[in-house]
Amino acid sequence: MNTETELNTIIAGWDERDKTIIAILCDIKDDTDADSSSVGNSPDKIAEKIRWMYHSRTRHSIKRNFKRVVRQDANKDMLGPTYEVLLSGAAKKLGIHKHCKSLDDHERYIPQAVIVAALAKMNPAQRDQFFSEDINAGPMWEAAGINSGGLIGLRTAASVIAISNASGAAVYAGATTALGFATHAVGITLPYAAYTGLSATIAQLIGPPGWLALATYGFFKVTGTDWNKLMPVLLTIIATKHRRQLLAQSALQDQNLQARGVKDKGAEDQAWEGIGSAPKKSI
User: Fold this and answer.
1) What are the residues whose beta carbons fall under 8 Å from the beta carbon of 277, sequence distance 6 or more?
2) Strand partners, 155
């Protein structure tokens, strides 16, 4: 990945609902910090919180044969991670970094790895539910502007993820599903509106928050990056980024169809006018 995309640049284009969701995951209160100019759920404030989670406020350092806890102050040496840096870090944590060669690889493989890790920790009955119980993924597709009749209706979670490839929504569906797993694994409860369709039904399917141990995915680490908190944040960024792309594509398609309809109507009118003004054949 040769690009470097600042997180506040990505989040700046989101609506307030999406900003509120990621702020909840970052444990940001909707107020003004005394030592910060960032207000509420601003992109800068969210990016700053992610910076702290990435570097972790508390680290252990060994000095002169004894351990002491050192609190790090905000400084220029602790730069906030870019989107690509977060993706690379998550891939390495999940042990899939050697297979991730591009941005698309990271966005596809990370949610898949989270889902596989969650399935591996399920008991047989829970795993059977994932593969056999029908859920309604309609809200997930509608939130992304996808209204294909072939995708709406009751399907198993596994089949929804599988058919999402045909609609070009594989990353969106995968990240949304993984978000349901990741937030439950660490005991995070989001408002129902925060779960976009599939992750809501997955969340209900797999049980109450915290049913997976904190160490389920091996994210937890006393020092360094706090992936217990960062993984749901990253999955939210991936899912929201791709949902917004799908919405933009859907809007463009609607505009093209509308323009084509107007054009076709104009051609039809001209044709009828031509017929009406055509000279009559002599008998």
Assistant:
1) none
2) 135
DSSP annotation of 32 reads B
User: What would the pLDDT profile of 103-118 be if each residue is shown by its tens digit?
Assistant: 999 999 999 999 888 8
**Tokens 């706090």 belong to residue:** 226
User: Nearest-CA neighbor of 10 among 43, 42, 40?
Assistant: 43
Residue 73 has pLDDT above 90, yes or no: no
Tokens found for residue 222: 């006393």
Rounded to whole angstroms, the maximal C-alpha distance in the chain is 114
Report whether 202 contacts 180 (CB < 8 A).
Answer: yes
Q: Can you tell me the mean pLDDT for 130-137?
A: 82
Query: Residue 256 and residue 266: Cα distance in Å, rounded?
Result: 15
Residue 64: strand, helix, or coil: coil
Contact 185, 154 (CB under 8 A): no
For residues 137 and 75, give the distance between their C-alpha atoms in angstroms, rounded to a whole number: 45
**Got the DSSP string for 255-275?**
HHHHHHHHHHHHHHHHHHHHH
Handedness of CA 79, 84, 86, 92 (dihedral sign): negative
Tokens describing residue 155? 């399907």
**Integer angstrom CA distances of residue 244 from 10, 144, 207:** 11, 7, 29
Q: Is 60 left (phi over 0), alpha (psi -120 to 50) or beta?
A: beta
